[in-house]
Backbone:
């Protein structure tokens, strides 16, 4: 029987539990054995109880849960060859030669590196007498399949990552709470959202919450003009009768000289136009809570496809990443997706902001333009 390990790695995201559930159950359905790898790559490196077989009933009730019940971690040992050597030994001793990883671009890069190194790791284990040639004979190739779990929606080549819509939902709930008090007192709120390098949460929260303005890293405003523009737009909305002001700031917001735009700077502008202004940094509430329906569905469909991809993989095909494009579950070459994702940061650093916008999900540019149109024509009703 094929033995597959499933792992969650990097930052946690709602929907990761649903991924593990789907991989365990689809694996059993397709006559495989599935091992849960606990605490990210530490589970592979340390082995023992951190790498154990999971049964159908072990994941009962996991579909809706937030976070990840098999744990996640940043594992420094796995970044070193000796750590990956220990991981390969632990896997071979259990007869595991396929790994489904749900994580961000770092986790997927590590997985692909592990796969490319695998034959040489096996040779080294035999040469040093850690394992015998017979023990390793059946395990000459490692199969890797990636799933993207990230609240930031920061992976290129897929429209959505698992967890992003749950996080967006949390942000909207929180802004709705803030809105009640903001309108009552006619206050302004600067709401800081997660997304150190990616403005998807900031942009979609701006649209979904009817914000007056947003600041995101992919579309930096003019360093010399953004303060005046912000004041103008907020004043215009107030003049039209709006009793509250909401500005969303992504934690990685920049101006076009690549200097950070902070919530405090935004607040200072709003105070200058006479608004009673508070800053709310949403922080880790954005990661918490149960997975919304979309993330449960995405995690389940992608988890099942990950098992199929394991069974269909050959030593010659590149590792796939399971994505979703235009509503269809698709397989993309994992390292190409990671490379494109990294090129967003490069484009921003080179001030090629249009290029950065284009590399986000397929609706990103259009959504931003629509946000501006709505903001321009805002009649104060929202
Ligand atoms: P997030 O987007 O939430 O930060 P991530 O998967 O990018 O998720 P990282 O901290 O970059 O998060 O990576 C998670 C783990 O993956 C690391 O702690 C390490 O164990 C492994 N990893 C990351 N990059 C590599 C690499 N280049 N080589 C080997 N392992 C890696």
Residues:
């Amino acid at each position: 029987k094929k033995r597959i390990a499933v792992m969650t790695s990097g930052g946690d995201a709602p929907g990761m539990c649903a991924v593990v559930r789907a991989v365990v159950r689809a694996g059993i359905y397709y006559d495989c054995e599935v091992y849960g790898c606990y605490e990210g790559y530490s589970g592979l490196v340390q082995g023992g109880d951190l790498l154990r077989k999971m049964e159908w009933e072990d994941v009962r009730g996991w579909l809706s849960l937030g976070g990840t019940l098999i744990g996640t971690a940043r594992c420094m040992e796995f970044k070193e060859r000796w750590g990956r050597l220990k991981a390969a030994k632990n896997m071979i001793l259990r007869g595991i030669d396929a790994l489904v990883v749900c994580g961000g671009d770092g986790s997927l890069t590590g997985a692909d590196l592990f796969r490319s190194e695998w034959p040489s790791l096996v040779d080294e284990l035999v040469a040093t007498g850690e394992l015998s040639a017979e023990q390793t004979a059946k395990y000459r190739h490692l199969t890797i399949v990636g799933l993207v779990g990230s609240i930031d929606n920061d992976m290129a080549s897929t429209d959505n990552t698992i967890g992003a819509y749950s996080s967006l939902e949390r942000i909207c709930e929180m802004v709705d709470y803030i809105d009640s008090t903001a309108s009552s007192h006619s206050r302004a709120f600067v709401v800081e959202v997660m997304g150190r390098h990616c403005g998807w949460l900031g942009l979609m929260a701006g649209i979904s919450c009817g914000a007056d303005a947003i600041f995101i890293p992919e579309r930096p405003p003019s360093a010399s003009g953004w303060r005046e523009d912000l004041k103008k737009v907020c004043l215009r909305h107030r003049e039209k009768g709006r009793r509250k002001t909401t500005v969303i700031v992504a934690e990685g917001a920049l101006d076009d000289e690549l200097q950070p735009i902070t919530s405090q700077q935004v607040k200072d502008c709003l105070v200058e136009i006479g608004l009673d202004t508070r800053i709310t940094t949403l922080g880790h509430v954005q990661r918490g809570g149960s997975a919304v329906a979309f993330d449960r569905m995405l995690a389940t469909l992608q988890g099942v496809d990950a098992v199929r991809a394991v069974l269909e993989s050959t030593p010659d095909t590149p590792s796939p990443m399971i994505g979703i494009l235009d509503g269809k579950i698709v397989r993309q070459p994992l390292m190409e997706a990671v490379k494109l994702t990294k090129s967003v940061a490069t484009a921003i650093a080179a001030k090629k902001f249009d290029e950065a916008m284009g590399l986000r999900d397929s609706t990103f540019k259009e959504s931003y333009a629509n946000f501006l149109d709505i903001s321009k024509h805002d009649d104060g009703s929202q």
Observations:
- The longest strand covers residues 3-8.
- Residues 35 and 53 are 4 Å apart (CA to CA).
